[in-house]
Amino acid sequence: LGLRATVQPGEVVTLPILLAWHFPTFEKYWGGSAGCDGCGCERPRWRNYYASQWEDVTAVALYYAANQERLYSGTRAFAKTLLESTLPDHVLDALSSQASILHSPTVLRLEDGTFYGFEGCHGDAGCCEGSCTHVWNYAQTVAYLFPSLERSLREADYGHNQRPDGHMAFRLQLPLGSPMWDFHAAADGQLGGILKVYRDWRLCGDDAWLRRLWPKVVKALEYAWEQWDPDRDGVITGVQHNTYDIEFVGPNTMIGSFYLGALRAAECMATHLGDAERAALYREVYERGREATEELFNGEYYVQQCPDDPALKYQYGEGCLSDQLIGQWFAHLVGLGHILDPDHVRSAMQAIFRHNWRTELWDHANPQRIYALNDEQGLLLCSWPRGNRPRFPFVYSDEVWCGIEYQVASHLIYEGFVDEGLAVVKGIRARHDGRRRNPWNEFECGSHYARSLASWSVLLALSGMEVDAPNRRVAFAPKLETDPFGCFWSSASGWGSYRQSGEGWAEIRVEQGSLTLGTLGLGTLRSDSAQAELDGVAVSTQARPMDQGCEIGFEPEIVINAGQVLRVTLAS
Hints:
Layout: E1 25-27, E2 45-47, H1 57-83, H2 89-99, E3 107-109, E4 115-117, E5 120-121, E6 126-127, H3 133-136, H4 141-145, H5 147-160, H6 187-204, H7 207-222, H8 224-227, E7 239-241, E8 247-249, H9 253-272, H10 276-293, E9 320-321, H11 326-333, H12 342-356, E10 357-358, E11 378-379, E12 382-383, H13 402-414, H14 418-431, H15 456-463, E13 466-468, E14 473-476, E15 485-490, E16 494-501, E17 505-522, E18 530-534, E19 537-539, E20 541-545, E21 550-561, E22 565-570
Parallel strand pairs: 14-17
Antiparallel strand pairs: 1-2, 3-4, 5-6, 7-8, 9-12, 10-11, 13-14, 15-16, 16-17, 17-21, 17-22, 18-19, 18-22, 20-21
């Protein structure tokens, strides 16, 4: 390699060196080939996605050289827009650092463009194959930064992982088309998948995409009536495999809240698609389930109703589970509101913080994996503040998992406990400050663990951001008192920045792509009169006061393109 230049006195010359790679073939290095079990036959191979875009390493280097300025400026624009938010530094640290998981060996892209993820990765291998549905339930970053990749996860799941009876495997097997993972259906993964379809459709507004998946979604939900709720009383029972790698048995709100959320999401999708009969049925089952589930509330938090079987192991019973309302968390993320009694939900979230959040762990006994210790802060997966800890609780119960911490932190914020939620985020990042642990590697079962992509939900909670692309609606309801407030926003069509002030104005800027807007929800600003300008040109608006804040309607709808700013000024 030789680079030559003549440098005169006082001059500076930059000599560019491009480091490029191109490994077109991916070999399935784990397990056996499709249909065999360690028989020594040739391992399956397929091409990486980028091999379909560039012929060889030279083509990669030439593409980068030709597009370097565009790629670099786009990256800087994203970083600038995100980091100029008025969110606390430790929140921005969590968002930006954990987004790097998408640039780690935890994930890859198949030749047809399908996104695929392990749970995490080791130094020489992926950890826990199959875009595991219950782990990826927590992840929100992909859906908001790369929505089309997230939708490909849904397409792969419903295209390759569902049996005729609706039972879904929760680990996608490679290469695509391989025999399905043969195990219990994961109750949290299968029911959470329905909420993810609803989220992804709301972000893109593509009715054709929803219609293609809808028959499979119906099968996935109605499988619950065969396996977990045969009497359709809205309460999950039976064997419920879940993200703790065990099976819960008996009614509980971890799986139950996913079920209630899935019923509500399915009702909304069915209504939009004109399937009124199914929508009514889902609503009926949901209403019965909501009422019955409240019987699990012990006056402070929700518990598990265990069968009276002394041989039953690995449950949590009367414990205060940090994940007890994960389905309610997801319902907030997708704009469904409270699916359980709001007062009970708020009480339970306070109990989780009160009992499970530890400001130090010197005296905490944990016989399992150690992710937080000594003077560090952390959220336990479960505690038994009223006693009656099972002799054999579920095996991870004494551990601290970052992804669950982010889930609980953002849910606390949604319920109005902002300081508590931010304390959890701050504690996570203090454990990963670059001295104690790698700030870009929140590990669990493997490094760069996908569950930490739940961190993006903290942005959603603090901003109150909702994207409802089918109805051309975007809304914000900031939970922070900073004025002006500013944050990053994104949808399937574009991304940019949002700012608002208590002085009576709000701005949306599009940095890339576009945003079609019929309604702008302002959850913390209130007025019955408003004016709006798109890049200085007046647009027709109508302000409508709401129970909280107001909505600004645009008739006709407006399109904000890259580089444009919509400014709304409210009458005092």
